Amino acid sequence: MSNILPYLAGIYIYPIKSFDAVSVTEANILQSGALANDREFALFDGQGNFVNGKRHTKIHQIRSSFDLSSRSLALSIQGSEQKNIFHIDKDRIKLESWLSNYFSFPVKIEQNSILGFPDDTNAPGPTIISTATLELITSWFPGLTVEDIRCRFRANLEIGGVPPFWEDRLFGKEGELVQFTIGKVVFAGVNPCQRCIVPTRDGITGESYQNFQKIFVDKRKETLPDWIVRSRFNHFYRLSVNTRVVESQEGKVLHLGERGNMIKY
Questions:
Q1: Are 257 and 6 in contact (CB under 8 A)?
Q2: Where is the MOSC domain (predicted)?
């Protein structure tokens, strides 16, 4: 492993949970360990449940473009050229009305600028995966591209310069935190991320890929590295690493392309 030089190859922010990613060149760390603006907003129905890809396939067909500086959100329906522009703060009522009409039930938008709305509140830091992992997984599914797989698994930080599943070194036994650094930011790897139904669907159309989960599970088990902490895999539908910070890293910044000894474990 001494000749491996990991570098930060991609930073992806999801300002609105379940909507499209925003690719950025740098990201600020919040006190919680989350990336600023990531999953800062989420949609909820009248019963207080998330309106997300797990519950509503229709959400995949919403195309979104979020300008982080102007707080401007452009929404359209897949296949339509009509764009609807909203200011995420000033046009909240109009935005909620548009979403309610689309889903045919009342939708509210909630905001959490401190923690965001992570799936794993015990590990609210960015999820991490390697580019080589995405490339290998793509080879398991004829007809899909690396971008398709990236869109399905929705990790925040992508690491280049390493072999497939290198990121699985960033977690240990149950209850053990593995500390590592990216640039000047110190993270702790918590666990391999348990996946849901969302990766089985096309991130653009919502169409299911036949036997996606079975193929993934069989291949993941087959390619599981010998050195991995196997006890963390009660099942093999797990991919990417959930993280958190051990102590506040607030105000530190991740920069695209940081490399060399930027990651240690």
A1: no
A2: 75-263
Within a domain: residue 222? yes
> What average pLDDT is seen over the chain?
94
pLDDT: which is higher, 265 or 196: 196
3-state secondary structure of 247: coil
28 within domain boundaries:
no
User: According to the model, what pLDDT value does residue 261 have?
Assistant: 45
Tell me the pairing of strands 62-67 and 157-160: unpaired
Give Cα 56 to chain centroid, integer Å.
18
Question: Is the per-residue pLDDT at 194 higher than 90?
Answer: yes
The reported pLDDT for the residue numbered 247 is 85
What is d(CA 190, CA 170) in angstroms, rounded to the nearest whole number? 8
> What range does the domain containing 150 cover?
7-11+121-255
Please say whether the beta carbons of 233 and 187 come within 8 A: no
Assigned domain for 33 exists: no
In percent, how much of the chain has pLDDT > 90? 87
Tokens of 82: 């009509």
Name the token pair of 96.
Answer: 């909620």
* CB-based contact 21:10 (threshold 8 Å): no
Report the b/e string of 249-264 with b at 16+ CB within 10 A.
beeeebebebeeebbe
Global model pTM greater than 0.90: yes
Q: Are strands 41-44 and 108-111 parallel, antiparallel or unpaired?
A: antiparallel
Both 106 and 130 in one domain: the answer is no
- Burial 64-102, CB ≥16 within 10 A → b, else e: bebeeeeeebebbeeeeeeeeebebeebeeebbebbbeb
Q: Quick one: pLDDT band at residue 260, thresholds 50, 70, 90? A: very low
Proportion of the chain above pLDDT 70, given as a percent: 96
